[in-house]
Amino acid sequence: MSFGDDTAESYDELRRGDEEATVAFLAQWARGGPALELAVGTGRIALPLAEQGIRVDGIDFSPAMIARLRAKPGGDRIKVTLGNFTDVAVTDSYRLIYIVFNTLFNLLTQDEQVRCFENVAAHLTDDGVFVVEGGVPAEFCRLRNNQYVDLEALTVEKVRLDVARFDPITQRLEESHVTLSSEGVHLNPIVTRYAWPAELDLMARIAGLRLRERWATWSREPLTPASSNCISVYGP
Predict the structure, then answer these.
(1) What pTM was computed for the model?
(2) Number of domains into which the chain is organized
């Protein structure tokens, strides 16, 4: 996914309805802060978290997304480092570092994901935690020929499809949201590398962290075999 001007302009339309619960969960673990969001984007989570009186910094590689953040009320108070959150250096230590909305999976190799954990561990305070939200890829085991086509939206004027192919060897999902309308065909592609919760635990161990909590939702519903989302809290 490019995360350029087009994506930045429409990104805030992708609200899931759990933002308030997300902020409440993170605020509890921040314990007054400071906090760092990896891939801070347009500030969907960082801005309301900062309104809780917590100093929030961010990392993002997209100038367009950062510009969108800056244009919002309070956006000028979020210090953002431009770069890839895998390796980019920040000078401070944080009581909370977090990454939400499957964004860890935008790193397309296991090595990059491990380096991200190591980078985070190097910038946590002694009592700090790393919170990771990511989808559970169990549904990929049930795909026919490791691919699917899903109807996301249908109106008289427009059809939106989710088309994807999963490679179980590399754990990469090549996906495109396809919009068909009288204006033509619009593709919104994205490639991700999914990791199982157990694999995330091993990455954390390599970085010197351990699992503290795991939930299916920000409201702390238990993780079950039927869960589609996973929220993990790691600490030293």
Answers:
(1) 0.86
(2) 2
